[in-house]
Amino acid sequence: MKNPLKKNVLFFRSNQNILWDIVVCGALLLVVSGIGSLFYRLHLDGATIILLYLLGVMVVSILSTARLTGVLFSIASVLIYNYLFTIPRFTFHAYGRDHFATLLIMLAASVLAGSLAVRLKNNAKVFRQDAYSAKVLFNTSQQLSKAKGPDQAYSCMARQLQDLFGCGVIVYPIQDDQIQETITAGTISQKMLEKEQMHEVQKVLKKGGYAGIVAGRQASYAPVHLEKEVLAVVGLEKVLENIDEFEENIFLSILGECAMTLENQRVIKERQEARIEAENERLRADLLRMISHDLRTPLTSIYGHATNLLQQEEQMDSSVKRQIYQDIYADSRWLIELVENLLAITRLDQKQVDLHRNQDVVEDVIEEALKHVEGHTQGHKIVFERKDDFSLAYMDARLIMQVVVNLINNAIKYTPSGSTITIQTESKDSVAYVTIMDDGPGIPDEQKERVFEMFYTGTGKLTDTKRSLGLGLALCKSVIEAHHGDLILEDNQPHGAKFTFSLPQSKEEAENENLGHRR
């Protein structure tokens, strides 16, 4: 059954076009005939007047909306030329034998010229539409390329459609065959938001990706799809009868651009997930390989010393026994430190650690950390300088103590015996700062960007015989960032390395999550 609204609209448009063509045709006939009469009085050749009518045919073919108008103008031109400019004048008779042939050739030339003019007009229209389509799609593609995630892509597409068609746009995202929260652009009438409109959406979903544009009572609906998978349904608050073929192509092309963008986002996400998974697998493999290699030395040492004590304890003097005990203690302590770092950084990386933060005194935490390294400084001098009487920080004291221990141990490992390790505390702008610096050889510039990576040990020479797994600084970085602070590495003057980390002094400051290095 035909839509009577569409029939009325088409009838009104056709009447407008016919009226316009009649006005253009009549006006040009009067103008051309008037100019032709002037040429006739000036005794110009009849061929000139014929060319004038041919020019009129081309002009009316370009200005009119129907091809038939040019043909009718051609017939009228021949009749008027015969009536006004052939002998006998002001009659439709002609005495000369060549006049009839001239009139036929004039008619044929007029029709041909009119057809060529119409074809040129149509080609120009197509070229303009193609250029406009390319511009719109390029602009849409540029805007969609900046979208981060499906929601932004849908919003960008809706705004573009709203700008082009000047009407409200509503998007129904589809996920797991369920309609999600709608996204709108422009002014949406209340009728567009009623539940009855879901019937039109379901109709599009039922037809699938090849539904095309489905006419609704208040809007026109079309799917954003990849092959048969429907990603979203878009409602354009414009009835289908008011959308011409060119607008329909633009509409569907923009939906296609959005679908391509969503597919690209999906591919990028899958690649990122695959890369992360591959990186995790590589890290796990590296961890197992390095642990199996690096734990062998202390375990072999402990096993050898325990065997000697079991078999030859009675033959050993007290000094030899004491040295063996110290070696076993040192190896065991290194193993415990390694395992603690492994557990802590794994939990932090997997977001499994609950920070038990309270407002504590930073200096007390550092004092407690110094007790853990006391007796294992390997001849290093540790100096604790307080710029303030005390500094408060909103922190998990246990984890921050582990950070301080790791930074001190790192300085001990990579500086020669007799070096000085200085610890400083300071409060400024609601932020507590802790600096741990040494006067050793320092860290080369090319290694500074990687010292906080897991398993990166650099090329620095350790002062003991054990290798480092490169977990201490990575753990420190993770702990400080979990506190919304920052850990940076700088050169100590005149030589050495300086690590400074910041902590919020209050819960409110921590919630800002943007401390940075303010000093």
TrEMBL record:
<dbReference type="Pfam" id="PF13493">
    <property type="entry name" value="DUF4118"/>
</dbReference>
<keyword id="KW-1133">Transmembrane helix</keyword>
<dbReference type="InterPro" id="IPR004358">
    <property type="entry name" value="Sig_transdc_His_kin-like_C"/>
</dbReference>
<dbReference type="InterPro" id="IPR003661">
    <property type="entry name" value="HisK_dim/P_dom"/>
</dbReference>
<dbReference type="InterPro" id="IPR005467">
    <property type="entry name" value="His_kinase_dom"/>
</dbReference>
<dbReference type="Pfam" id="PF00512">
    <property type="entry name" value="HisKA"/>
</dbReference>
<dbReference type="InterPro" id="IPR052023">
    <property type="entry name" value="Histidine_kinase_KdpD"/>
</dbReference>
<feature type="transmembrane region" description="Helical">
    <location>
        <begin position="70"/>
        <end position="87"/>
    </location>
</feature>
<dbReference type="InterPro" id="IPR029016">
    <property type="entry name" value="GAF-like_dom_sf"/>
</dbReference>
<feature type="transmembrane region" description="Helical">
    <location>
        <begin position="99"/>
        <end position="118"/>
    </location>
</feature>
<dbReference type="InterPro" id="IPR003594">
    <property type="entry name" value="HATPase_dom"/>
</dbReference>
<dbReference type="InterPro" id="IPR036890">
    <property type="entry name" value="HATPase_C_sf"/>
</dbReference>
<feature type="domain" description="Histidine kinase">
    <location>
        <begin position="290"/>
        <end position="507"/>
    </location>
</feature>
<dbReference type="Pfam" id="PF02518">
    <property type="entry name" value="HATPase_c"/>
</dbReference>
<keyword id="KW-0472">Membrane</keyword>
<keyword id="KW-0067">ATP-binding</keyword>
<keyword id="KW-0418">Kinase</keyword>
<protein>
    <recommendedName>
        <fullName>histidine kinase</fullName>
        <ecNumber>2.7.13.3</ecNumber>
    </recommendedName>
</protein>
<dbReference type="InterPro" id="IPR038318">
    <property type="entry name" value="KdpD_sf"/>
</dbReference>
<dbReference type="InterPro" id="IPR025201">
    <property type="entry name" value="KdpD_TM"/>
</dbReference>
<keyword id="KW-0597">Phosphoprotein</keyword>
<keyword id="KW-0902">Two-component regulatory system</keyword>
<keyword id="KW-0547">Nucleotide-binding</keyword>
<keyword id="KW-0812">Transmembrane</keyword>
<dbReference type="InterPro" id="IPR036097">
    <property type="entry name" value="HisK_dim/P_sf"/>
</dbReference>
<keyword id="KW-0808">Transferase</keyword>
<feature type="transmembrane region" description="Helical">
    <location>
        <begin position="46"/>
        <end position="63"/>
    </location>
</feature>
<feature type="transmembrane region" description="Helical">
    <location>
        <begin position="20"/>
        <end position="40"/>
    </location>
</feature>
